[in-house]
Give the backbone structure.
Amino acid sequence: MSDIFISYKREEQATARLFANALANHGWTIWWDPQLQAGEYFDDVIEQALIEARCVVVIWSERSVKSRFVKDEATYALDEGKLVPAQIEDVRLPFRFANLQTVQLFGWTGSEEDPEFKRLKRDIEKVLVERRSKPASAQVQATTVVKADDRLEDAAEFRDRLADGSQGPLMVSVPTGQFVMGSGAADEEKPVHEVTIGSAFAIGKYPVTFQEYDYFASITGRLLPEDNGWGRYQRPVINVSWHDAVAYIDWLSKQTGKTYRLPSEAQWEYVARAGTDSEYWWGDDFRAYADNAKRAGILSFPRLFPKQTTEVGRFSENPFGVCDTAGNVFEWVNDCWHVNYTGAPEDGTSWLESMDGNCALRVLRGGAWNADGQFQRSAARHKYHPGLRYRHVGFRIAREP
C-alpha cells in the first residue's frame, strides 16, 4: 500500500517524475509506474493501487482534463475523500472539480521550496493524517458505521459494507411525503393521482455503475455486459436485463445483510420529482438545463451532445440529492406494466399483477442518452421485456430501513 498515487497523462510523464521524486524526498511512498501509465492502461494492477493508496494526487493539464481515465481516477479519489489536485497549466478544470481548492504549479521545475509545492505537501499531509486515523478496514472504504435505522433517519448519504469490507453503492436517504403522480401528457400517465410515501427508504444516488456491476459479475461468474466501447468504471452499467438487475440486488442484499430491491415506479417518480410539480425537476424548459450543462463544458446530454452515456454525477443533483434521473440511461423499476394508472396503489408500493398487470413487460423510467425531452419528463413511462438487454438501459437500486 502506497501513501500517494499519482494520476497523470502520458505526455506529462516528466512532470510526474518531478512530483514523485519531490514527494518521495518527504518520506512518502509513491505509486506511479511509467510503464503502466495511470489512466492509459487501467488494468487490475492500477485499479488496486488506486484503491489502496491513502492519497491521490491528480495532475491537471491541457491533456489530462480531456482524459476520461484521469477523470475516472479523480472522481474515485474525490468520492473517497482522498483527492489532492494540482494544476500545472492554466486550463478549465472538469466541471465536478472546478470549485475544489487546487494547487497551482504552472511552470514548476521541481523546486521543493516553491510556496505552492509546500501547500501541496500540507494538503497531502492533511489527507494522510485523516486516513491514518481511520480503522484499517476503512482505508479502502471511508464510511462511518452506524445502525441502519439511524442511517435512514440521520444521514443524507451512506454506504453499506460488503462482506469483504469494501464499499457498496452510495445511497441517499429519502424523506417521507406526498406527491401527485402522473400527468395529462400521455394516456399511460393518467389518471393523475396522489401517492403517499409513508415509509422511509433510500435510493442510489446514481444508477449502478460498471465498476459496481463488474465486481458482482466477476465474483459470481456472470458475463460482463458490453459497454459499446464507451468505457466502464463510473459510467452507468448498460446492456443489463431486468433479471440481471434483480440478480445483482439479491447478491448485494446477501453481501450487506440489508434489504435491497428495485424501486417501485411510484418511489422512482417521487425521487425524480424531488418535491417539484414541473415537467422536469429543474422546471418546464428541458433546454434550460441542457444549455447550462453545455456551458459548463459537459459533452453528453440527449440530442444536444455526442450520443453515448457519460460518467454518473456529471450533471447536477436534484433537490433530494439524486443524480441522473433525466438522461444517461433508462432505469428498470420493480413494477409490471399497466396501460394506465386506473387502480394504482396510493401508498408507493410496487404494482404487480393486480388490475390486469402484464409482468411479461416491466416498467422503465428516466430517459436515456438518446431520448428527446418528452421522454426525460419526471412522469414519462416506458415498457420493455424483462429478459432483453439494450444499450439504453441500466438500473438504480433502493434499500429498506
